[in-house]
Design goal:
Pectate Lyase C-like, Pectin_lyase_fold/virulence, PbH1, mainly beta, 41 strands, 13-stranded parallel β-sheet
């Protein structure tokens, strides 16, 4: 068996939502040792685990009739997750109701968080931003606010400032853990200078669900509402309804991510992430954001509606699959793929009603070869995208080695100045096979001089 086949097996294992850690099991099969057919629970061995019939389940709800823990905020959910994680993993079940968060719910490894569909809603308090009243140095673990009204111990916050040395942006996510008046202790040190010269602020902003350096997590059947009308924008490289950083083997299934003033679902340098049958809609920025360096994402059968960009492949996202998604009403782009995003397959999706372009291959000219090369776009339906002089599929820069095959690209609003496929003047080899174009002024506009 080849290494690529092993990787694929692990990827599909993650897609099932199993907590059996299939990816690491597959890696262990890379030689000719006898197969493990009847594993035992052995201390320290988390690669081979028996398929237990039952694991611990803790139920959380608004009253004590059918619940183990009673509450309606982040604290009770966090307590339940911490309890099952301490005992080796298990399930936290959220009963119907609205849970209003003052801090993000942090997901530990080997847990499953399950709701009751759209009847289980996680939302957040309105954001408030205030200036800092005193300098804090990089080694400090405290801040002082000009006006602490509305802030409490336990709150999740973001601290932002300009770097006094180079003018760059500082963004730090922290939790307030102790207080004396307007002075707060933080859960961890700053490691950045928050000097008044950089106009530092503190905001009640955070992702609703988040994790860092954890693995083997399943989230199913709940709704995340970012209360966009009462919260300011928070960049998707730091937050969203869901935000992961440096994680592995996460599965999101049947999750609604809506109304966040930022991204719906964002994951950065996180591998073998599965987003399946989710609904990400009406977010200010990106519907699903497979972020920098994320390997082998599987994005399947989701609805991405009325976001700025439906599906945004960030930097260096490779070996991913996006299929059977319905991407509609994106204000800018339905699908955007760019900086070193290579070897991905975009297949059997419906992409319609994008404000600018249906599928965009971005121009990434800042490096030797940062373009989105060796990607495949197959059997998609790309309908009514862009303005009157717009383009349905736009291949920019020196993008090369694409395969665009068996797609139906159509325009029902009138041909006007619309183009089905545009290939930029510097683009490399592109294979076009059995595509059908309907209703355009120009089906293919190939700007390469040798064509």
């Amino acid at each position: 068996m080849t290494r690529s086949e092993l990787t694929r097996r692990g990827f599909l294992g993650a897609a099932t939502g199993s907590l059996a850690f299939s990816y690491r099991q597959a890696k262990a099969d890379a030689d000719d040792r006898p197969a493990v057919v009847d594993p035992r629970a052995t201390d320290g061995d988390d690669v081979r685990e028996p398929a237990w019939d039952e694991r611990l389940t803790v139920t959380v709800g608004h009253d004590g009739k059918e619940t183990d823990l009673v509450g309606r905020d982040d604290k009770v959910i966090q307590a339940a997750l911490g309890y099952v994680a301490r005992l080796g993993g298990g399930t936290v079940r959220l009963l119907p109701g609205t849970y209003t968060l003052r801090a993000p719910v942090v997901l530990p490894s080997r847990v499953k968080l399950v709701g009751s569909g759209l009847e289980t809603i996680l939302t957040k308090i309105p954001s408030r931003t205030v200036p800092l009243a005193d300098d804090s140095d990089w080694y400090d673990r405290e801040i002082t606010l000009e006006d602490a009204r509305g802030f409490q111990v336990g709150d999740g916050v973001v601290l932002r400032a300009k770097n006094a040395h180079n003018g760059g942006e500082i963004v730090l996510k922290r939790t307030l853990v102790a207080r004396s008046g307007n002075r707060f202790r933080l859960d961890s040190g700053l490691r950045e200078n928050l000097w008044l010269s950089g106009k530092p602020t503190c905001s009640a902003l955070f992702p609703l669900l988040t994790a860092e350096r954890t693995s083997d997590v399943v989230i199913e059947d709940l709704a995340l509402d970012g209360d966009k009308a009462n919260n300011e924008n928070f960049n998707g490289n730091y937050a969203g309804c869901i935000f992961l950083q440096d994680c592995n083997t996460f599965t999101f299934r049947g999750v609604t991510a809506r109304n966040y003033n930022g991204d719906g679902i964002s994951f950065q340098i996180s591998h073998d992430v599965v987003v399946e049958r989710c609904h990400s809609h009406d977010n200010a920025d990106l519907g699903i954001h497979p972020g920098s360096g994320s390997q082998r994402p599987l994005i399947r059968a989701n609805r991405l509606e009325r976001n700025a960009i439906g599906l945004f492949w960030c930097w260096g996202v490779k070996y991913g699959l996006a299929e059977k998604n319905r991407i509609s009403g994106s204000r800018d782009y339905g699908v955007s793929i760019g900086h070193n995003d290579t070897d991905n397959l975009i297949r059997d999706n419906d992409i319609q009603g994008s404000g600018k372009v249906g599928i965009l291959f971005r121009d990434e000219s800042r490096g030797k070869d940062f373009w989105p090369n060796r990607n495949r776009v197959e059997a998609n339906r790309v309908t009514d995208n862009g303005p009157e002089d717009g383009v349905a599929i736009d291949v920019q820069g020196k993008t090369k080695d694409l395969k665009i095959a068996r797609n139906l690209v159509r325009e029902t609003r009138g041909a006007k100045g619309r183009t089905g496929l545009r290939v930029g003047a510097e683009a490399g080899a592109i294979e076009l096979t059995d595509n059908r174009f309907e209703g355009f002024s120009k089906e293919i506009d190939d700007l390469r001089s040798d064509r």
